[in-house]
Amino acid sequence: MRQKVGDFFQDHYPALTPFVETQARTDFKAARAYAISLLDIHDAATGARAGRPPIQYEALKRSALILAVTAWESFVEDTVQQQLEFQLNLAASPSSVQSVFNRVANEWLSSDEPKRLTDKLINWTGDSWKNFVRASLTAKLEKFHTPNTENVESLIERYLGHKAISKSWSWQGVSNIKAKKELDALIKVRGRAVHRGMRMHPMSQPEKTMKRQTVVHALNLIYNLVDSTEKALNIAPKIVPTQPPPPEG
23, 54, 86, 235: least surrounded by Cβ within 10 Å? Predict the structure, then answer.
């Protein structure tokens, strides 16, 4: 259950309510909490006072924003890996995951290495074709470093068969168009924070300071992106019904 507590959206369930969630979501929440803890340290050190804090605390905000985007990137990767593996384990034949099978097989056939020899084709027999799909995803994830709208959509469509996942990125007060725009802007801010350190030379163009609200907004944005993505994929957290106690006697 999505709820805003203080500055941040988070999952909230009544006490003692049993629920299940994906491994990817559990790990995302832990990674996001790590980023929030840096912001808490920043607030404690600065007294959360208005105005520009001492420059040494800028690193806490920049690091928190970088960790926020990393949490989102890891969630996307973990979700695709875990959901694809779930589909592969259930697949009795390639037709069960026809879309991803066709893409991987076409790539394999179109590469320069001769593959139509019997000793090569035999690797696709039985359930061995699943290993080619897994290897394809592994190779793709090694190059997945920019989790913007285009790249996330491409990865999810390619391996999970869900087209235009960003159309589901909407929540109260935020349309999917605004969500996509804000995500792509956040990825660019992350890029500047990663690739540009503080510059103190008088001839250098100074870097803009990171506003606390920018970090808070990023942490809430990625939470809502995760929440809406899981709903679209039908893997959102679910409350587990409890069985009534058996009648006495």
Answer: 54
Q: What pLDDT, in 10s, does the model give residues 22-38?
A: 999 999 999 999 999 99
Furthest CA-CA distance within the chain: 86
Radius of gyration of the chain (CA): 22
Establish if 48 belongs to a structural domain. yes
- Cβ contacts of 39 within 8 Å, gap of 6 or more: 60, 61, 64, 212, 215, 216, 219
Model's pTM, two decimal places?
0.88
Give CA–CA dist 135/53, Å, rounded: 48
User: What letters, b where the CB count within 10 A reaches 16 and e where it falls short, cover 57-71?
Assistant: bbebbbbbbbbbbbb
First to last CA, the chain: 38
